[in-house]
Amino acid sequence: MMALELKIQPLRYVLAVSEEGSFHSASRLLHRSQPALSMAIRDLEERLGQPLFEKSQKGQLTPFGEYCLPRFRELIKQHDRLANELQYVAQGQQGRVALATVPSIASRLMPEFLAAFIAEYPNININLHDENAEFVCRMVANGEVDLGISSVWAQDEHLSYTHLFEDNIGVVLHRDHRLANRESLQWQELKEERFITNGTSRLLKNTAAATLVDNNDFYISNMISLLAMLEAGSGITTLPRLAFPVDNHKLCFVPLNEPKLIRQIGIIKLANRSLSPSAQALERVILKRLISPSAQA
Known about the structure:
- By secondary structure, the chain is an alpha/beta fold.
- The protein has 3 domains: 83 residues, Orthogonal Bundle (Arc Repressor Mutant, subunit A); 104 residues, Periplasmic binding protein-like II (D-Maltodextrin-Binding Protein, domain 2), CATH 3.40.190.10; 94 residues, D-Maltodextrin-Binding Protein, domain 2 (3-Layer(aba) Sandwich), CATH 3.40.190.10.
- Helix content is 41%, strand content 21%.
- It is built from 11 helices and 10 strands.
- The strands form 2 sheets. Strands 1, 2, 3, 4, 5, 8, 9 and 10 form an 8-stranded mixed beta sheet that branches.
- The chain starts with 7 loop residues before the first helix and ends with a helix.
- The model has no long low-confidence stretch (mean pLDDT 88).
């Protein structure tokens, strides 16, 4: 036996007639003609194979109608709840989105940005992952997150990149260091220094300053450990400006001008897959709030 298909509108008519006490009152409430209302309910009764209202008293439910009424009411509630949920999700007003960023973006830009986003989209849940640039790209490529905010270390045809802004690279050293008061530095001035490489030091590769990376004394990937070494005066390093802790009074940031290096920061997503509506909403707000004027040109 084929499953019975029920349309929601006739069920609403049945509830209205029962609550108003007559077809005439229900038709006025619903702004429908009484014949149209009667025809829709008659068609529903034919589908069900039983009358819902007594023939002699048009607003009086039959025993079968009394059985159906609470079930119609529950079905309508479920339908409306699902319809509203689907509409909110489709409009990007509700849902869940996963975002991965490099640590400097997570700590410097995300707190204020996400507070503004949540205020605008209170029903979207955000999962934020704090990873290095290479791992951010990998998480996007593997579908573990919807969006990434990072630089792209290697070209990947499976990933799409939209530029947001540039982040200057500079030398980070102790405030008591002999080079600390300089306005800018050239890489040749660093050759005799104890150089500590980190995850962002690969930006020096394929530049005139590549020898600093090749001849490093230490490699430290953890930012807390790196800063502790620098604060102890155990060496110098290079970092993007956003990665430099502005509240650190023991260290200073000096721009590196020869070579002048920048870290490109942008939105990373899968190239051939659509975003969910909630991820689309997040991407729109990122482009609105984080993109620099030069990137828009």
